[in-house]
Design brief:
The strands form two sheets. Strands 1-2-3 form a three-stranded antiparallel sheet, with no helix packed on it. A two-stranded antiparallel ribbon has the order 4-5. α2 packs across α9. By secondary structure, the protein is mainly alpha-helical. The chain has two domains: about 160 residues, no CATH class; about 80 residues. The chain is about 55% helix and about 5% strand. β1 and β2 form a beta hairpin.
Length: about 300
């Protein structure tokens, strides 16, 4: 299978996990009982009823210790995952797992098919060719996605705070509580707005998880990245397929560590198609400094020369 197929499988699998976690009580917060559910069990501080009524130093110290071990420490562990992931794999999570990234890519693809470019606002030099398409078909698909995906996402994410069974029962009867309606509508508006007007700008400038991966991936000497084989630069045909494949507007042939690169491998696949399986790009980890001497200049020359 191609990298694109593998990537779609991992994205869909992660989206399925997001949907299933509250439904299977793997992870959710029950707003009604004010309890955190983790793998089917209530995750509490482990304090007995009436313990807070004790005001001695020993009781206070015990409460503080339990709060640190059961609340602060697990949360710090979760927060540390993204810096660690960035240090080892750069923004791999963004390109291969992130549900928002997958949604933005779908929006880009539909926009290209409908108006011939990724952005609603302006054309870019690296916009892919839309090809001969029936725009009515893609407009209909875009409308369907604009209705189904935000609502489905709203239901799934609201399930992290209201029991999914309760949400489904309320939807079946048409009697939705204010919290359920607010959750579904709020998430739906957010998803619809970002997927139409914001897209990958959110990944670059807003997303905290992406920014943590970006920072730690940038400074890491071992993080995963896409490299170009400069020793074979003369084989580049200047087709610019790698540029058009990049939805993050990175120029892969510059061969420099770019904070926007999400290690999706689209440039690798595009170059393999152009050079009949002998593409110039490959994944690499810890292979020299980010700006090797002479590396950037050679790659830039490859970008600018009129190859045929």
């Amino acid at each position: 299978m191609s990298l694109a197929v593998y990537r779609r499988v991992t994205q869909l699998a992660f989206i399925l996990l997001i949907f299933l976690m509250p439904a299977l009580d793997i992870f959710r917060y029950d707003a009604a009982s004010r309890e955190l559910i983790l793998f089917g069990h209530v995750w509490g501080l482990g304090l007995k009823d009436g313990f807070y009524a004790e005001h001695g130093l020993s009781a206070s110290s015990h409460v503080a210790l339990r709060f640190f071990l059961k609340a602060i420490l697990p949360w710090l562990f979760v927060l540390a995952l993204f810096p660690l992931f960035g240090f080892l794999a750069g923004r791999f999570f963004c390109g291969w797992l992130c549900p928002e990234g997958a949604l933005f890519e779908l929006s880009d693809w539909l926009t290209v098919k409908i108006i011939g470019r990724r952005s609603l606002y302006r054309s870019r030099p690296n916009d892919p060719e839309p090809g001969a398409v029936n725009r009515i078909v893609y407009i209909s698909l875009a409308v369907m996605c604009a209705v189904v995906i935000p609502v489905a996402g709203g239901i799934a994410l609201t399930g992290y705070f209201v029991a999914p069974k309760t949400i489904l029962r309320q939807m079946a009867t048409g009697d939705l509580t204010f919290g359920v309606k607010a959750g579904i509508i709020g998430v739906s508006i957010y998803m619809l707005t970002t997927s139409i007007f914001v897209r990958h700008a959110l990944c670059r400038y807003v997303c905290a998880a992406g920014l943590m991966q970006m920072l730690f991936g940038w400074v890491s000497p071992v993080s995963l990245r896409v490299r170009m084989d400069i020793s074979r630069a003369e084989e580049c045909t200047n087709c610019k397929g790698c540029d058009r494949a990049c939805f993050m507007n990175v120029t892969p042939r510059r061969n420099r560590r770019d904070i926007s690169c999400v290690n999706c491998g689209a440039c690798i696949e595009a170059c393999h198609r152009e050079l009949n399986g002998r593409g110039l790009f490959h994944f690499s980890s810890g292979e020299g400094p980010a700006h090797a001497s002479g590396e950037g200049e050679t790659a830039d020359a490859c970008c600018s020369r009129p190859c045929g």
